[in-house]
Specification:
A hairpin with a 4-residue loop joins strand 1 and strand 2. The protein has 2 domains: 148 residues, ATPase, nucleotide binding domain (Nucleotidyltransferase, domain 5); 178 residues, Nucleotidyltransferase, domain 5. It contains 15 helices and 13 strands. Helix 1 packs across helix 3. The two termini are 22 Å apart. The protein has 396 residues and is of the alpha/beta class. Helix content is 38%, strand content 21%. The strands form 2 sheets. Strands 5-4-3-2-1-6-8-7 form an 8-stranded mixed β-sheet. Strands 11-10-9-12-13 form a 5-stranded mixed β-sheet, sandwiched between helices. Bound molecules: adenosine-5'-diphosphate.
Length: 396
């Protein structure tokens, strides 16, 4: 049996999914898993498609275990478990493709070197995405590895929405708005075509609200505008990232407060967002369980900022037919969804509180002008579809 493996390697977690291929190259999920809390107390869980746990491991004293150590462990386990399976390719989520990588591609040393240059633009993600590719190349040098870029879905959008109002020469040198979470948005655009073709053809904002968070304005399934920009720091407030901030604040940090660039980066990427405002946690669920007023302020700020940016994207679209919630917060946090929808009432969004509370696929009232939906994202499946497209010419 042939199989392909999708890998999403982050700073503290590695998510993966194994898809078996039948004789028509149709992928069927066979197992997926996650190694999380890397650098603290790593733990691994692998489950079948019907959620039966097939392997579990806790390294309670494993703070020093690296991504390489853990991937090696996983490969050893897979050798035993996937004995009857021939892995034909690995696909990876790579956050930044810059100007040059606008479609999935096979990774070789030259590609890796180019992608390496983009690490400063996505310091929370890119180094970990590329590390996984390098480690797997060492463990399995003969199996092709395919990079799928989070920036690619946004590449063909109107040039106007890619510009910062800075001198032309800087734009031409690549200082422009790229946009991220593209694999997630591409997957949602596909699912929407299956679930509601009429809406898929209309003007839809999708909110990928997880630890990282952004919105994408889609017209007829294509990205028109998005809240993230040159880096994944822009736009919405996130778990630990500040989102859009007056650039004058950064000048002030450096010139008046004497901060070095690394310190500014640390504040904006790792100490801000829900964590910075609450002073409690970057995790939305933890904040919801807290009675501290700072936690409430952080949640409300998150919702206001999301609704404010949604208003801006509705303006780019020239109207709004639908709003899709996805990712950890979008799929699971009814209260945050309700707060955002209440702020979008002026656009015609009318939430059905009961449907929202039970995380129904459609959470708007029948009379709502804007259809409100919850659709689980699946970046790993989107990677698998891109692998098949590249290897066998299948349509993603
Ligand atoms: P990422 O993949 O970017 O690390 P996720 O998409 O997993 O992030 O989203 C993480 C966020 O989703 C956290 O803020 C977490 O609290 C929230 N979340 C996850 N599951 C739930 C849940 N069942 N209820 C409420 N919030 C949840």
């Amino acid at each position: 049996m042939r199989a392909i493996v999708s890998i999403n390697s982050g700073s503290s977690s590695i998510k993966f999914a194994v898809y078996r291929l039948d004789e028509h190259d149709t992928p069927t999920l066979s197992a997926n898993g996650k190694i999380e809390r890397i650098g603290i107390e790593p733990r691994l869980k692998i489950q079948t498609v019907d959620k039966q746990i097939i392997h579990q491991m806790d390294w309670s004293d494993g703070a020093t275990l690296s991504h390489a150590d853990l991937l090696e462990y996983l490969f050893d386990w897979a050798k035993g478990h996937l004995r009857d399976t021939q892995i034909v390719a690995f696909g990876h989520r790579v956050v930044h493709g810059g100007n040059d990588f606008v479609a999935p591609c096979c990774v070789d040393d030259a590609v890796l070197a180019e992608l390496e240059k983009l690490c400063p633009l996505a310091p929370l993600h890119q180094p970990h995405n590329l590390a996984a590719i390098r480690i797997i190349a060492g463990l399995s040098p003969d199996i092709p590895q395919i990079a799928c870029f989070d920036t690619a879905f946004h590449h063909d959008r109107p040039a106007l929405t890619t510009r910062f109002a800075i001198p032309r020469a800087l734009h031409d040198a690549g200082i422009r708005r790229y946009g991220f979470h593209g694999l997630s948005y591409e997957y949602i655009a596909r699912r929407l075509t299956e679930l509601d073709p009429a809406l898929a053809g209309g003007k839809v904002i999708t909110g990928h609200l997880g630890n990282g968070a952004s919105l994408c304005a889609m017209d007829n399934g294509r990205s028109i505008d998005t809240t993230m920009g040159f880096t994944a720091l822009d736009g919405l407030m996130m778990g630990t990232r500040c989102g859009t901030i007056d650039p004058g604040v950064i000048i002030h940090f450096q010139k008046q407060m004497g901060m070095q660039a690394a310190q500014v980066e640390d504040i904006l990427y790792r100490q801000s967002g829900l964590l910075g405002v609450s002073g409690i946690s970057s995790d939305m669920r933890t904040l919801s369980e807290s009675s501290a007023p700072e936690a409430e302020e952080a949640i409300e700020l998150f919702a206001w900022r999301a609704a404010r940016e949604a208003g801006a994207l509705a303006s780019t679209l020239g109207g709004l037919d639908g709003f899709v919630f996805t990712a950890g917060i979008g799929e699971n946090h009814a209260d945050v969804r309700a707060r955002i929808c209440h702020r979008l009432r002026w656009l015609g969004a009318d939430i059905d509180e009961e449907a929202n509370a039970r995380h129904a696929p459609i959470i708007s009232t029948p009379g709502s002008k804007v259809k409100l939906m919850v659709i689980p994202t699946d970046e790993e499946r989107m990677i698998a579809l891109h692998i098949l497209s590249l290897l066998y010419g299948a349509k993603p």
